[in-house]
Design brief:
By secondary structure, this protein is of the alpha/beta class. The protein folds into two domains: about 200 residues, 3-Layer(aba) Sandwich (Rossmann fold), CATH 3.40.50.1820; about 70 residues, no CATH class. Helix content is about 35%, strand content about 15%. The chain is built from nine helices and seven strands; from the N terminus they run ββαβαβαβααααβαβα.
Length: about 280
């Protein structure tokens, strides 16, 4: 079956008669992370998640953000063939959401609003994932679950284990966070994580001011993770560089939590309130 015929669209909240919101999750590519948020955004607007292609058996993940975005566009247009579109993305998904908006705009479609959750468009840190060992990828994949720091193994301890032992440690860690999968499924998710990270490293969007309203929502704990802008940069550039890519002023919000906890209870309630406020003028 051609990959283009396999939809990445997942219905998260089907009710409502307002324009739907299409939301792209973080680097894990799993829309389940969006469920706490969707539970608090109300029932007046349908919400769809766009999962990473490659999570299911017999799927191979994409290795570039433009390819990921193009597949998502095919999926969302099965529900909404023409704009205006309402699009959002969390973390890595924010960069994919921008590329979705860019491609739709190039196709002549209008974007009502692009909602970006806690990410800059340009990754200034460039973690050089292309040079990572297999053990490093597995370790970082494990740390992408939870709060980013509660994996019980240090990297040196983890790297000393055999690959099969490493995967068993990851399975235990994921189970602690409510992810109950068998080993082939975990290996599939790890492959998606690796492909998404590679896609993220290679993405250099053209600097052009798109006719797209961009809303940036930042978590207020901004110095927790090295791959996000630090406090000094944020003071000088509160828009985190997004102003280079929109023809309109960037609207910025700040909500409680850090990059991980912002989408989890209790902070997710404030985030949902903020997103509802962003969309209140969109029918």
């Amino acid at each position: 079956m051609p990959s283009e015929s396999i939809s990445t669209l997942v219905t998260l909240q089907p009710k409502g008669d307002k324009r739907p919101l299409f939301f792209i999750p973080g680097i894990q590519g799993n829309v389940a992370m969006l469920l706490p948020l969707v539970q608090h955004t109300g029932c007046d607007r349908p919400v769809y998640g766009l999962r990473s292609f490659g999570q299911n058996a017999h799927e191979s993940p994409y290795n570039s953000i433009p390819e990921i975005a193009a597949h998502h566009i095919c999926a969302l247009q099965a529900v909404q063939p023409a704009g205006p579109y309402l699009i959002g993305g969390y973390s890595f998904g924010g960069r994919v959401a921008f590329e979705v908006a860019r491609q739709l705009s190039d196709q002549g479609h209008q974007i009502s609003q692009l909602i970006i959750l806690d990410i800059s468009l340009i990754d200034s840190t460039r973690r050089k994932a292309g040079y990572w060992s297999d053990a490093r990828f597995r370790y970082e994949f494990a740390n992408s679950y939870g709060n980013g720091s509660d994996f019980i193994w240090s990297y040196d301890e983890f790297a000393a284990l055999r690959p099969r032992q490493q995967m068993r440690c990851i399975a235990q860690h994921l189970k602690k966070h409510g992810v109950l999968l068998d080993m082939p499924e975990i290996e599939q998710l790890a492959a998606v994580y690796r492909a998404n990270l590679s896609s993220n490293e290679c993405y250099t969007p053209p600097i052009e001011a798109l006719p797209v309203l961009i809303t940036l929502i930042r978590a207020d704990e901004i110095e927790v993770f090295s791959y996000l802008p630090d406090k000094q940069f944020t003071v000088q550039h509160p828009e985190w560089g997004w102003e280079q890519f929109s023809a309109y002023p960037i609207t910025c919000y700040q909500v409680p939590g850090n990059h991980f906890t912002v989408i989890e209870p209790p902070h997710v309630i404030a985030l949902a309130d903020c997103i509802r406020d962003c969309m209140k003028t969109i029918a």
